Amino acid sequence: MSATGDTHVHDDHDVHHHKETFVTKYIFSQDHKMIAKQYLLTGVIIMGIIGILMSLMIRMQIAWPEQPNVIFESLLGKWAPGGVMDADIYLALVTIHGTIMVFFVLTAGLSGTFSNLLIPLQIGARDMASGFLNMISYWLFFVSCVIMILSFFVEAGPAAAGWTIYPPLSALPLAQGGSGMGMTLWLVSMAIFIASSLLGSLNYIVTVINLRTKGMSMTRLPLTIWAFFVTAVIGVISFPVLLSAALLLIMDRSFGTSFFLSDIFIQGEVLHYQGGSPVLFEHLFWFLGHPEVYIVLLPALGITSEIIATNSRKPIFGYRAMVASILAIAFLSTIVWGHHMFISGMNPFLGSVFTFTTLLIAIPSAVKAFNYITTLWKGNLQMNPAMLFSIGLVSTFITGGLTGIILGDSALDINVHDTYFVVAHFHLVMGISALYGVFAGVYHWFPRMFGRMMNKNLGYLHFWVTAVCAYGVFFPMHFIGMAGLPRRYYTNSNFPLFDDTTNAQLVITMFALVGGAVQIVFLYNFISSIFYGKKAEQNPWKSNTLEWTAPVKHMHGNWPGEIPHVYRWSYDYSKPGHDDDFVPQNVPMKEGEEELHH
Amino acid sequence: MTALLTILIVLFVAVALWQMVKIFDLAQIGDSNTQIADDKDNRINGYLMIGFLIFIYAITILSFMYLGDLPLISNSAAEHGPGIDNLMIISMVVIFIVQIVTQFLLHYFAYKYKGEKGKKALFYADNNTLEAVWTGIPVIVLAGLIIYGLFTWNDIMTIDEDKDPMVVELYAQQFNWKARYGGEDNVLGKANVRLIDLDNANILGVDESDPNAQDDVIVTELHLPVGKPVLFKMRSQDVLHSAYMPHFRAQMNCVPGMVTQFAFTPTVTTAEMRQNPDIQDKVKNINELRIERQAEIEEAGQDLLYEFDYLLLCNKICGKSHYNMQMKIVVETQEEFDAWIKEQKTFENSLLN
Predict the structure, then answer these.
(1) Residue A222: alpha-carbon gap to chain centroid
(2) Which of A281, A286, B115, B193 would give a disulfide with B42, using CB separation of 3.0 to 4.6 Å?
(3) B232 within some domain
(4) pTM score, two decimals?
(5) Do A87 and B320 touch (CB under 8 A)?
(6) pLDDT tens-digit readout, A170-213
């Protein structure tokens, strides 16, 4: 982008600035920083609270099955007659908890907040390529959130077929109450969500490719941007496939087609469906579903890369290997979906192929983990809350990732498939890890978003209690799974065989309740810091990336004058020959200075 | 009314927590606090990192002590079971070594290199040898695991028709299981849900005109002769179900519109398994827990004392009563099996007309 072009854009924004009203500034805003905050509030905070509350209700039901609970009575109303949770609503909670956390919090919330905030600021752009599309993307997301929540208020209850909505269960209202209006709303909400996600992703891709400032070559991009960029690419490749699966499912449900259904006898009648296959749906679903794991995880890893380097006061170790492993993970993520389907009835030979590709993914993942650890080595670690969450992420990423070696192995998957082992695995490796990424990002970029600092001591309290509880919940859960206890059981009381898991379940629920409660500390810290937090300096963490060169007070176009030019990569921390332990990207090379990472 | 009260109470508790946090927050005002970690924070959190490392190790050890007898990695009751169990144990050993070492490095470095004012970090951006090493090691280890895994998988999934397996259909419907034996000819009669005729008690949709179907036997309790290969053909009439037999390390989805299959050879009879010391310990432990909850269990109308049985569970979400879709499996000697199956009605005789 030429300097003259930049000035021109800037002038446009200046004129626009004076016409700004409350509505255009706070509601239908086209400014990427405001949209990021909107995503943070809707996607992370509000949907996050709802999703976590659901998980706590699920845990309470598992620990004290079929017992009256006043919390159920008050929150679930008619679905908890006398305070005893109904089996249908249990499945609905499991379903909507999964949907909200995976899609709304950790896809839209995470990418929406940080891609929007950081892509223009870190690459040196005035705004997203299309502010208008960006605004549309947020408001579509908002509508899909509203529809998903509304589904709790329909007569027969919300969708309850699991977040994977496998037909025929999801297709037949006769099979389950939630597969009526509730599932219709789920599908409509997800279709709108996918449209929102695609608009967002296209915008991120175009922005990163076209709007980098002078000197910001791809090899100087911060790893955050690499991660957001590749995430957006995976999203554009795989989300449309889920959309087509959803549309075909809508056809089967409402227009009598037989894409996924065949030979069904239910409640005394034979249905007309013939020739379809539920396995086809599973393929289409997991063609998104597995890349989705990395859509959730990669941005969190990108955030971690940035925060670990900054707070270690060291360059990220092996920048090129990190970029290569992001690309490798992205590529492999699209050819491993079958490991969710080893025992779906597909050809066992396919199982072998998918075992092979799945275990390959462990290699770039291992490279990333080792590179993080080496980045810490001989660093000067600044233990800010964001740093703690980043280290915590690496820890849960390793613990959770390792059990993937078992689940990805088709022979071993036979006996732990769909048990609590799987629940423990994916919650650690993508749920908790990605949540830590969100928290790390919020603590780190809060000064950038709100011009104030969050309270660090509350941050420490938040991290340590959360970290202990996360392991307390999910580590013992592996053992319950290996005992053969299936997930998604409303109660295990009909299986005396599993009675010896009940104490462990109780302990897990206790950890979950404490871990859930401590999020109030975060919430308090977040809200009160917006208003009363200490005023932030321009570059509180002494970071190299461009977002910290912009003024603390937000403005349209991000920089008052010319956009800073970039002369080096973003990881010149503690570089020999410089007095400070950081050299921002917009500082020109000294005479004779070399770019050492090449 | 109670609902309103609880909402109020929950609200008050939340407000109380909020206020407590606020006091904590206010207590720090006056500190010349920049909200950026200083040396003291680095030191404290560095020590906490070591504390957390100990916590991770402790929870690992405690889980093994108290939950270590839960995992099904011994006492498999099928011929292919030890193959899976060995692979599981090898994978677990690899995982635990990697887990212990990497968590140590991560948290120890976080402690060791905690920040101090005036210290400068080492500018260390790249080392191709190191990276080659830790790309290479996972490649080798994973190659081993993949190869072992694929051989195990192939062995399990390749069905050897020469061994003359007994053919059994597992039939799933919301929310129960049926089993159908091929009868004398060991051939299952053709079936389709379109042939279901409830008025004629033809509940599985077996083709009444198929000669192979006449001697089929339909039961609600699965009996298997020990040492005899069994080929399961799975069907479902309504939604996806999954036939999960954890003790036999066996699982396969039941998919409406298609027939899926899984084969194994049971090796331990129910009676023998009940005599297994590990299982006896487990049963004793379970019964102690059940006696503690005596009132609750009797109220639910269950037997107080638990006796070990093999089970077939549904392991794919299938609707409201998914949590109680099970069938007992009895493994017995060939003689016992023959005597049992003789007592069962054949399909021909089970029809009403």
Answers:
(1) 19
(2) B115
(3) yes
(4) 0.93
(5) yes
(6) 999 999 999 999 999 999 999 999 999 999 999 999 999 999 99
